[in-house]
Amino acid sequence: MQKTILAKTGNEAMAEALKQINPDVCAAYPITPATEIMQIFSSFVNDGLVDTNLITVESEHSAMSACLGSAAAGSRTMTATSSQGLALMHEILYIVSALRLPIVLAEVNRALSGPINIHCDHSDTMGERDSGWIQIYAENAQEAYDGLIQAVKIAEHKDVMLPAMVSTDGFIISHGMERLETYPTDEVRKFIGEYKPPYNVLDIDKPITVGSIVLTDYYIEHKKAQHEAMKNAKKAIQDVGKEFGKIFGKEYGLIESYRMEDAEFALICIGSTAGTTKAAVEELRAEGVKAGLIKVRVFRPFPAEEIAEALKNVKSFAVLDRAESLSNQAGPLATEIKAGLFDAGLSKPMSSYIYGLGGREIYIENIVKVYKDLMSGKASSEKVAYLGVKE
Fold first, then answer.
1. Percent helix, strand and coil across the chain, each rounded to 5?
2. Which of 28, 57, 96, 251 has the most CB atoms lying inside 10 A of its own CB?
3. Per-residue pLDDT tens over the stretch 56-83
4. Beta-ladder partners of 151
5. What angle do CA 6, 245, 240 make, to 5 degrees?
6. Helix axes 185-192, 219-248, angle to 10 degrees
7. What is the DSSP letter of 384?
């Protein structure tokens, strides 16, 4: 397969994936730092490079509402947003997943106000972790591009039929220029295949009601169906990731283990920080320290069993959360991991750190310090510790 090497930002990479996917409908409203995705895509629409009906609306709530209507009418539908925009979609996100509409969302992680901030953390997507959407996080522009392509096939899988969001770290990835390997458009479209919606509200020969009121009689049955679909999504994500690897050369799973084969001390994180942590791991390995990393690529469905398996031989580990749940227990990622390890009957010394809120930089030396605290047994005894806070 002839691949093309380009220099692209994360936003450009996502726009490129959208172009190659060629969805039937995109409805969008601009918000920093995701604005460029649809701005670039609009030029593809204007130049006739895609057949997409691009709908510009008055708010993100309207954008997701238009996407809902489009998907219910049988159209392959996508959009993009960030932060307050995702929060404004909150009401409709739940409806979309309940209606089993496989909308795919390109999301750029940005802190939720307040105070007002336009830089990266994961509070926006973590705030929607219970909305019934599949959540995939990208470490870099390549994973953002690859992730969007896979997300379409995963969301539309007959045993899943759930919406999916693919997230990149705001400005760090969205505006950072990187090497991007793109694939032939015909191969991308062949991979995702033709969308065959299970229902269409505009089919007058098979009239149906969509979004009707459901009270005590069948509401819980609807939720149980979503639960089963999310369970099915786990296998679908793994199967699609393997198929993607066979065709395009890079296989994807629920997590990525880095230097974990003999690791004694491990860090677990999400997103671009995994790249920084890999550099820290190599620095420590050069000193003879058996350091390792687990990158959580998929947060919903949560890969509890896979994380427990990856941690079974470590002496201790730390979880880095770029979001604060304000539970006084741990960050959202660390809380999920605690529950998963309990279910697996695995007891390991664990430290929970909150870092990088509002775009605060995290450096190799910050991460090295966490590893060395684990090695010395001086890792924080607090349930939640803050990393990189000004004294």
1. 40, 20, 40
2. 28
3. 999 999 999 999 999 999 999 999 999 9
4. none
5. 115
6. 140
7. S
